[in-house]
TrEMBL record:
Keyword ATP-binding set for record: no
Keyword annotations of the record: G-protein coupled receptor, Membrane, Receptor, Transducer, Transmembrane, Transmembrane helix
Transmembrane parts of this sequence: 17-40, 52-70, 111-129, 141-160, 180-207, 328-350, 370-390
Protein name: G-protein coupled receptors family 1 profile domain-containing protein
Species classification: Eukaryota, Metazoa, Spiralia, Gnathifera, Rotifera
Subcellular location: Membrane
All residue ranges annotated as the G-protein coupled receptors family 1 profile domain in the record: 32-383
GO MF assignments: G protein-coupled receptor activity
Listed GO CC annotations: plasma membrane
Domain of life of the organism encoding this protein: Eukaryota
Amino acid sequence: MDSDNHVPISPHFTRHILVNLTFCLTIFGICGNIISIIIFYSPKFRRQSSHLYLSTLAISDICFLINNLFEDTFRNYDTLYNLHMDFLENSSTFVCIIVQYIRNISRLTSSWILVSFTIERLVVIYYPLHRKSICRRKTARYILLIIFIISIILNVNVPFHYGLLYPAAICDVLPKYRSIYMHFVIVTMISVYLIPMFIIGIGNMLIMHKITLRSMHKQLERNSIDSHVHARLSIPSDGSINPVQHNQHDGYDQLSLVILPFQNNDKKALTKQVFCYYYSHLSLVQEADVLDPIERKETDFSHVFWHTKTQRQYNIQLKGGTRRRITVTLLLVSCSFLVLNTPYCILWLLNYINRFQNEDLKLVKQSTELLMLSNFCVNFFLYCLSGKLFRLQLKYLFNRLYSNDKQNNSIMNPNDNH
């Protein structure tokens, strides 16, 4: 095809695409955040401070999305299609100020809730012994209250700078305050995006560094235990095991004893690995009573467990898995915050340098606004991706809704069953 026949995409067509995508994304984000709030306030999630952060983040995101839907999306629909969907048109000055106040507060609050959540996870990973004193719902409530109060104070200019512009009665910045308002916009960019992105980026790097070091340390520890076990255990050809002598200076509290025999056709290749699970790491078992080889063959067990404090160890393992899943959720949500907001910040700065006069840059900035908006919408998908318990609770919620709907239909149509 010749280049002469190429028809460029008009900015008008691009705006149509952006407006419709924005509407669909906003509706999806509102529904997803509502479901997230319902799940996070269920009994299985209610006790943890991390889920209080996430539920409050979902509430803040809903406030921003609903505000954006009425203020921007419907206004753009009204401009493009003349559908008279601008609900804020001809509204009162009070409604105009409240809408702008909620928009600015929710945007700032969402960013700093994620910062607080990142800092909490960072402290938990680097100082696990202080986890119980830090990761408390009462502490999280105080932090969220402080964030909300600071957000109100930082946006105290909104009642003075916003109002209705006549004769169209459009809610916007008053002309006499436009020059001053630009300074507040710069402060908003720094406080909502640049500083939180810097803190979250540094926090994520430190978390990933600590997780990598811990993983390497555990792998080296397993290899050391493995070699120590083979050196300490004598395995005769008949498959019997000589008990390992007890070391009196071992002060650890034994939680459970696990014997894992790996059998194959070659009796000489029969290996035994004996481990003792302690509070925080694996250690070599130093005293063991084992089954008689004949009795072990008759039982045909692939592994045998002796429990002294099994339930306690099981709870520790569950809590460790929960903490890992919460950390994975944090990394996904915070990384999406960085990825989706960075293009918008860059384009905003470029437009600011060009005094918002370049039409091409303004059009590209509108595209990055869609990415910025998606940051308020994708968290529900990320929770489903990273949280097994979240998925189970979501499945239970839909099954319950389906069963209730089916029961209501059977009550309304009793003759269908006959």
